[in-house]
Fold these 4 entries.
Entry 1:
Amino acid sequence: MKVASITSLVSALVLALCLKGLQYFHLIKWNPIGFYKKWDLFEGSSKLFQWSFLILVLFIIGFVLYITLRYVYIIPAVLSSFLLGLFLSITLEWIVLDLPLQSSSFQKLSIPFIVIVICLLRFLLETANFHQKEHTAQKGN
């Protein structure tokens, strides 16, 4: 569990920093902490608290993914992280941007965001696969 916590924390921090960078350089057309205003949550709180809460949510999601997906080490992490990352990032941007179901909507998606999500999922899955195989090998000895 210690490795899962550290890996999830690093993944959450890197994703939050990348989201801030993507927003700063206008590579995404949405605000990563804009959902607070949309859902009337923490509106009066500071930006530091809002980003900290986002990191906590990303940590929990990463932890659950790490624990869940470490048992699918039979599937190569390259394939599973690519497909899962592509699905998650496109779905998230589609919902956030409220895009219609048209082919022109794909032009509004952020390629850098998709790449970052896929890379971070690969990091999570490779680490989970490595530690699961190591644990299985130690049981065999």
Note: Residues 135 and 141 are 10 Å apart (CA to CA).
Entry 2:
Amino acid sequence: MFAAALLSIGIAGATPVASGDKLIPGFEDFRIQRIQRAKGEDDWPFVAEKGRLLCAPSWQKRFVYFIPDKEGGGIGYPLALDENMMMVALVNMGRGSALRPFDNLEQLVKRLSPYLAMGKRLCDQPAGSDLPDTSL
């Protein structure tokens, strides 16, 4: 989680987070939802079969991340999601292996959009929320 907090600072610059005007959000500021690939789901964008969506609201923006569950336990490094694919590419540089192969940018956007929208809805939940799969 701390890595996600640092990553949000990398995206946002030095903008304070909404709750308490803290530069680095605390664990209590995040919202989390467990997600997993459904059987036969062709548009699942991630290599990992399950993980967590994380929302880190900032002063003017809602930052959404996918944190993969590692096989055998543990969590992987957060993958930032955004409408701006250039931002996604820059922030996630070196972590391209977290996404399933895609044929073109349009296919990638189609795959990521529902999870980005779900993550933004997650930001509407109370700080510290930890929701089960299919809640949003």
Note: The first strand starts at residue 31 and ends at 36.
Entry 3:
Amino acid sequence: MKEAISILLIIGIGIILYKKGILRFMSTKKINYTYKKLQNSLKVRYKKFTGIEYYYFKLKKGVSYTLKFDVTVEEGALDLEWRSFKGVVDKKRFEADGNGELTFTASTRLHSVRLEGSDTKGGCVIEVVQNISNQAN
């Protein structure tokens, strides 16, 4: 009886996570996928990418930062999602080349960028810069 309850509980949690978009059943395909991750920057290039990848950044809580991004899309689409531990800060979809900036105050120490490729070819460069008014901290 306990085993049946445990199995039902696991299935129920899986369904909830799937509906919230946290759990996905997606195969990842990477062809000539390369990345270079430094403390506050990330550079990714790929000939073909389908799937999801996460890259993490440690920031100072309560400090203002600017996220700079430059995305190249030769084929397909790339979703770029900036996340804090508390949830999504911003999300953008690229079906063509694009760039921009996002200024935010770090609500938690750990932040991540989530890349989701849809049969895409190209790459991106992401840089997290502490704003000048906070550099004395």
Note: The CA atoms of residues 1 and 7 lie 10 Å apart.
Entry 4:
Amino acid sequence: MSRTADIDFTFQAPVTASLIVRALSEAGWSPAEPRGISYAIQDEDGDLDWSSAPPETLGQIIGALDSPEREQQSIGVSVYHPGAETGGLLLLFPGRREASFTPSINRRSHTVAEEMTDLSWYLEQMLAPLFKIGLLGYTAQDMAD
């Protein structure tokens, strides 16, 4: 049996990948994971097309993700917390008022139930910086598939 854990965020106003990455970086997060920068842009078929690039291309990647022609497409970027050696996928949806984070890089297990994700740790690390940029609310779940 597998599990799916994610945190869905809702913002008061549209946000950009640049704004979220900058806010999370103040709390120790980085778009550069151990293998570089992973990012995604929705293709014509509605699928996310994931790519990787070296960290020095971050400005170009964020520029492409935030370009006006992408506003009605889903986009994604991995975020990583080097101090905690964990991270995951951050997706932004059309309209940019909703985003979702899925712990997927060295996922932190809950201390009481190791098969479950320690979503409270991720929330503790993300809520304050996201609240500063207009976070309205969140929904967190960890479910068996």
Note: The mean pLDDT is 93.
